[in-house]
Amino acid sequence: MKFWRNVELDDITAGRLAEYERMTGRKVAPPVPVELLAEEVFDLRLCYEPVDGVPGLSVFGCLSPARRTVYVNEDFRALFNEKPGLERFTVAHEVGHWDLFEQHSDQKTGLLFGPPVSEVLNCRSRGGVPAKFIKGLWCESDNDTFEVLSYLQQRRDAPTVASAVDRYASALLMPKSLLLPAFREANVTSWPDLYELRARFKVSITALVVRLERLKQLFVTEGKQIFLGTREEYAGQQRLF
Amino acid sequence: MAPEAEVLFGDRLRELRKARGLTQKDLAEKVEIDFTYLSKIETGGAPPPAEKTIRELARVLKTDAEDLILLAGKVPKDLGKVVTSSSVIPTILRGMKDGEFTEEELQQCLRDLQERKKGAD
Predict the structure, then answer these.
(1) H helices within B20-102, ranges in order?
(2) Which residues does chain A have within 8 Å of residue B21's beta carbon, measured at their own beta carbons?
(3) SS3 content of chain A, % helix, strand, coil (to 5)
(4) Interface residue A75 vs chain B (CB under 8 A)
(5) Among all residues of chain A, which has the CA nearest to that of B37?
(6) A108 close to A102: Cβ distance less than 8 angstroms
């Protein structure tokens, strides 16, 4: 499996945004229109459905490659309303699955225990897979469901895949070309400044901080202090004083 | 599997929405329906909505409401009245159902009628 470097993901997502602008004639500004981009650039559908997880586990969203559909779990509606950044990141994560791993994959027409792998769903989750979906789509009995479920639980986003699609989502929602000027303009010195930036990009504060750290713009210390520089620079400064 | 009318209606709705640069949430808000319901309509997971909602969708999307209603497999209410108050239309419809008249024959009749009307004017 290919390991995607950050610079590659930045280039790919920048290309997708440019493609969206060309296709629609609309200039992208924050917040990045991730739903429209998914539909226009990749012809993916978006559907809000309740997606049952395994008891004790939950799924924010999934991708059905065969149906070219991103499913957002309707059961999390209240949470998504409260944290729109989480919902947008979920959609962007599934778009990442499609763009990086699925759209050119033969797996869409492959087989899994007889039923088509096409319906194997890539899940952004807190550790779950959609049992109801699996059953509804291609399992005839509870035993089938159990078998497929067990397989899928092992197959759930491998760390390298999850890492790539999460970094893809981060780069798509906070493209360098938009985030860096906005960050400079915001003249960030405190958390309220960061929260303002987060609202502008409609992402979670965690996603924003991770992205800015990745772009070497800031580092949040253990004491939750914002350091304008890299982790290494911060460590170097600590050693000086 | 969703019936064909539902899929066609959903696809058309999605096309029109995308052309306007609206997300499902944007459109649902303008039409005052739930966005999750709209997403299901678009993906064929729910049947097309009531005529009133279709008309509202057509208004926001600046498209012909009658076309959308027919695509949804429904007969617009005002046309329904015409059908029930006419003695000829039910006969034509029955004839079509029984295969007595083809679409092509009816198209020809319509053209003849329109020609005659034009001539009379």
Answers:
(1) 24-31, 35-42, 51-61, 65-71, 77-85, 88-97
(2) 24, 26, 36
(3) 60, 10, 30
(4) no
(5) A48
(6) yes
Task: Name the 3-class secondary structure at A70.
Answer: strand
A48–B36 CB contact, under 8 Å? yes
Q: Chain B residues contacting A, CB < 8 Å? A: 14, 18, 21, 23-25, 35-36, 39-40, 42-43, 45
* Distance in angstroms (rounded) separating the CA atoms of residues A130 and A73: 10
Residues A48, B35: C-beta atoms closer than 8 Å: yes
- Write out pLDDT tens, residues A89-125: 999 999 998 999 877 765 543 222 222 333 444 555 5
Cβ-based neighbour number of residue A118 at 10 Å: 19
> CB distance B45–A46 less than 8 Å?
no
pLDDT of residue A162: 67
Q: With CB atoms and an 8 Å threshold, state whether B39 touches A39.
A: no
CA angle A22, A26, A28 (to 5 degrees): 95
Quick one: which H or E segment has residue A61? strand A59-64
Contacts of B36 in chain A (CB under 8 A): 48-49, 74, 77
Question: For the complex shown, is ipTM > 0.85?
Answer: no
The string of pLDDT tens digits covering residues A126-137 is 544 445 454 444
Give the separation between CA A104 and CA A109, rounded to whole angstroms.
11
A219-220 vs A226-227, strand pairing mode: antiparallel
Q: Which residue has the tokens 């790539």?
A: A164
How does residue A161 score in pLDDT terms, banded at 50, 70 and 90? low
- A-chain CB neighbours of B45 within 8 Å are 47, 49
Mean pLDDT of chain B: 89
Determine whether A210 is exposed, middle or buried from the number of CB atoms within 10 Å of its CB (0-12, 13-18, 19+). middle
Give, in order, the Cα–Cα distances in Å from B119 to each of B110, B112, B113, B115: 14, 10, 10, 6
CA distance to A61, A204, B104, per residue, from A86 (Å): 11, 6, 54
Cβ within 8 Å, pair B14-A39? yes
pLDDT tens digit string along A202-226?
Answer: 999 989 999 999 999 998 888 888 8
Nearest 5°: the CA angle A161, A166, A168 is 95
